[in-house]
Amino acid sequence: MAIKNLTEKAGTLKTRLVAQKTPPAFTAKNFVKKLTEHRSAREREKIQCYFKFGAGQYGEGDNFID
Predict the structure, then answer these.
(1) CA–CA separation, 52 vs 60, rounded Å?
(2) How far apart are CA 34 and CA 10, in angstroms?
(3) Which residues contact 39 (CB under 8 A, 6 or more apart)?
(4) Which residues, at least 6 apart from 53, have a Cβ–Cβ distance to it below 8 Å?
């Protein structure tokens, strides 16, 4: 009896999971879109001091996403 109940519950759970909306495709375009949703000018300024991207430095020419 207990095994039958567990099997029924597992089947119901599987049905619910399959019925959920499929997440959007993981593409570069969607990644950049999500990334830009979380950007912050204040945070950007705060973390720039950790990176060397000035003239002659190892990250010369690199840019933070604006």
Answers:
(1) 7
(2) 33
(3) 65, 66
(4) 59, 60, 61, 62, 63
HSE (CB half, 13 Å, CA atoms) of 10?
6
Residue 7's alpha-carbon distances to 10, 14, 31, in angstroms, are 5, 10, 38
Q: How confident is the model at residue 49 (pLDDT cuts 50, 70, 90)?
A: confident
Query: Of 24, 61, 12, 64, whose CA–CA distance to 43 is shortest?
Result: 64
- Taken in order 46, 51, 53, 57, is the CA torsion positive or negative? positive
Does this model's pTM top 0.85? My answer is no
Q: How many CA atoms lie within 13 A of 2 on its CB side?
A: 0
- Please, which pLDDT band fits residue 26 given cuts at 50, 70 and 90? confident
More confident residue, 19 or 41: 41
